[in-house]
Specification:
Number of strands: 10
CATH topology of the largest domain: Transferase(Phosphotransferase), domain 1
Number of helices: 16
CATH architecture of the largest domain: Orthogonal Bundle
Helix content: 25-40%
Order of helices and strands: HHHHHHEEEEHHEEHHEEEEHHHHHH
Number of domains: 2
Length: 459
């Protein structure tokens, strides 16, 4: 028996299951479009209004049948949204700064936005800003130095900023590659303030919280060292590297003045009249900013004032080579804090007499005050005028402490080798007299002091 070919049924005309399927498909196939005749307006069905009942809407939809041709199905697409000035920018994330989404869209009366704000509530809600980038310790420089400084609780070393620790999720579709983005190693030099002992962790934690709070205000960058965040894993504070401080600068100017003595400048401040005037205005204004935010610095001294070069800075109107910025808030407190920490360290040459007196009574907590800040800054400016501590004549530490407790720094400076620079009726004396009064009740407040300085220097 010879088998018929597989397609013999097709040739004989006998219908097969394939033919049946094909016929069914043709029956269900979409009919060609028909040309619709125009319908006069008066004969068209009334439109469905918003007042129609759900039942009527469903009935109308069923009677209309499927749309011809059918609607193209919608697909989910990822769109790239453009951000406005108030939204999060990719540049901001690339810089490594933490973006608080909640604060970007706050009402005017909320913390972090313009308008009224409750500083006490701000402090209660403040938590240290996290630093989200990698950094590595820098090798010693040409002089063999790898540290900017070392204190009682911490050391500050050089570091190089790297790529983000937590890379962001890539965009869909991805953006065009940008040269110099976060994947490229940034050469920005950082100053990392790390604890030098285990019991310093809580102090640096508190300092990072204070810096986060202060930098939530717009003018903080005018008076404070740039703060980038806090490395919780190592209890380290990440700051911009500014190697020069006021102490080093003034001592260098004093050495130059001694080597090149001139009667023409012997009555001027050791750093020059214009620079000293600029320092006084900037530092008193900075202290006014701190106190207006209920922050007491607690350890103002020349070594805790960094000098940022004004060249290349946004402030092109500055005539002075440096911009003074406050740093080291390890002894600071917020006055609205219900449980402020006791002062962690102080420098006797710049401490007020009432603060030094409180050290003799261990039962009374030693807390810095706004008046003590004013006194400390005044002695700091006196140091910038004469090039040395007003108690430099003391040969023993006990004698120096006794002189500091007396609260007469101007009188001791006038008895020293640089008396001509603080002569009676001169600019330095008029700017500082009311700020170094021993009696706290007679000592100038920061706002009055600011007005006196501006009046004396002729602003």
């Amino acid at each position: 028996m010879i088998d018929s070919p597989p397609n013999s049924s097709l040739k004989s005309g006998t219908p097969t299951s394939m033919d049946t399927l094909d016929t069914t498909d043709h029956k269900n196939a979409r009919q060609p479009l028909q040309i619709l005749e125009p319908v006069p307006l008066n004969k068209r069905p009334p439109p469905v209004t918003a007042t129609s009942s759900p039942f009527n809407l469903m009935t109308t939809a069923k009677s209309m049948g499927p749309p011809t041709p059918p609607i193209t199905p919608l697909q989910r697409r990822h769109k790239r949204c453009s951000t406005s000035a108030g939204s999060i920018s990719l540049d901001k994330v690339a810089e490594g700064s933490t973006v608080d989404v909640a604060r970007e869209s706050q009402a005017p009366d909320m913390p972090g936005a313009s308008g009224s704000r409750s500083d006490a509530n701000d402090w209660e809600r403040t938590r240290p800003r996290a630093y989200t980038k990698q950094y590595q310790r820098q090798a010693p420089d040409l002089h063999g130095k790898e540290e900017f400084g070392r204190g009682v609780w911490s050391l500050v070393y050089r570091a190089i900023e790297g790529s983000p620790t937590h890379p962001t999720t890539p965009l869909t579709p991805p953006t065009s590659p940008i040269s110099g983005g976060p994947s490229v190693l940034s050469k920005r030099v950082l100053a990392v303030k790390a604890p030098s002992r285990r019991d310093a962790h809580r102090i640096l934690d508190h300092e990072a919280r204070i810096l986060t709070y202060l930098h939530s205000f717009g003018k903080a960058s005018d008076y404070l060292t740039p703060f980038h965040g806090y490395d919780q894993a190592t209890h380290s504070i990440i700051l911009s590297a500014i190697p020069l401080n006021l102490d080093t600068h003034v001592r260098a100017a004093a050495a130059t003045a001694r080597a090149n003595f001139s009667t023409r400048t012997m009555f001027d401040p050791i750093v020059g009249t214009e620079e000293w005037s600029s320092l006084a205005i900037a530092l008193v204004s900075g202290l006014s900013f701190l106190h207006s935010k209920h922050c007491i610095h607690g350890d103002i001294k020349p070594a805790n004032i960094l000098l940022q070069p004004s060249i290349g800075n946004n402030d092109n109107n500055s005539k002075e080579p440096y911009i003074p910025l406050y740093c080291d808030f390890s002894s600071s407190l917020i006055t609205s804090d219900p449980a402020p920490p006791e002062i962690s360290a102080l420098t006797q040459d710049y401490s007020s007499p009432e603060l030094l007196a409180s050290l003799t009574n261990p039962s009374v907590p030693t807390l810095p005050t706004a008046a003590a800040d004013v006194y400390a800054l005044a002695v700091t400016l006196l140091f910038a005028a004469i090039g040395e501590s007003p108690y430099a004549g003391a040969k023993m530490e006990m004698l120096k402490l006794s002189m500091a407790r007396e609260g007469r720094p101007l009188q001791f400076a006038k008895a020293g080798d640089q008396a001509a620079r603080v002569r009676k009726g001169g600019m330095v004396e008029r700017c500082l007299t009311g700020a170094v009064m021993k009696d706290v009740a007679e000592r100038w407040g920061v706002e009055r002091w600011r007005g006196e300085v501006e009046r004396v220097v002729g602003l």
